[in-house]
Amino acid sequence: MAKRLVLEVSSDELPDVWSLSTDLDAVPLVFRLNKALGWSFARGKDWILKTERGVFAHAMYQFEEGPRNYSLLWNAAHSLEPEPSAAPSQAGSLFGDLEPDASASLFLSRPRGIKAFLIFDPPLSSQEIVNLQSFLKDVPGLLGCNPRTSLTPTEHAQLAYEPPKDIHP
């Protein structure tokens, strides 16, 4: 896994990241957010996470409104390209025919129940945060949102650099 030095990034330059808990899958959640909030999330380029186990692709939904970019990153990967050393061996393995489950790899596995991340760049103002929280509580299937995630500084910085910034191809 490539290491990245992020010492030059101040907390003012990092986007807001909110964690979402839901009992919905990605597409119904995006549909309900778009309907309830008047947003226009559309599927964007996948967010790729490289680990020692392989390369995981996470669904990313995006739109922009004025100067702000909105992204929704689905926490469970939908596909996996295993590293050759991490691929299951076919010979002599009881479970050699089983494919690894990509969705078992979460960008953030703690705390449990975080199904997605909302990313706002640039960050929201205090009034926008209050307004958004009041709207989000009325979205069916959304069990909770937390604007203060338990992301480590490195995880937070990855969200600043990895999601594609230009939404238009």
Characterization of this structure:
The protein has 169 residues and is an alpha+beta fold. It has one domain: TATA-Binding Protein. Helix content is 19%, strand content 28%. The chain has 3 helices and 9 strands; from the N terminus they run βαβββββββαβα. A hairpin with a 2-residue loop joins β5 (60-65) and β6. The longest helix is centred in the first third of the chain and has 12 residues, at 26-37. The two termini are 27 Å apart.
SSE inventory with pairings:
Blueprint: E1 16-22, H1 26-37, E2 42-43, E3 47-51, E4 54-58, E5 60-65, E6 68-74, E7 79-82, E8 116-121, H2 126-136, E9 142-146, H3 153-161
Antiparallel strand pairs: 1-8, 1-9, 2-5, 3-4, 4-7, 5-6, 6-8
Short description:
Helices cover 19% and strands 28% of the residues.
What amount of the residues lies in strands? Answer: 25-35%
> Mean of residue pLDDT?
77
Low-confidence stretches: 1-9, 164-169
**Which overall shape is indicated by the principal axes computed on the Cα atoms?**
globular
Gyration radius from CA atoms, angstroms? 17 Å
Strand line-up in the sheet with most strands = 2-5-6-8-1-9
CATH class: Alpha Beta
**Share in helix:** 10-25%
CATH hierarchy: architecture: 2-Layer Sandwich
Task: Examine the coordinates and then state which fold CATH places here, giving the name of the CATH topology.
Answer: TATA-Binding Protein
Main sheet characteristics: 6 strands, antiparallel
| Classification by helices and strands | alpha+beta
Put simply, the count of helices is 3
Strands, count = 9
**Number of structural domains:** 1
Order of helices and strands: EHEEEEEEEHEH
N/C terminus separation:
27 Å
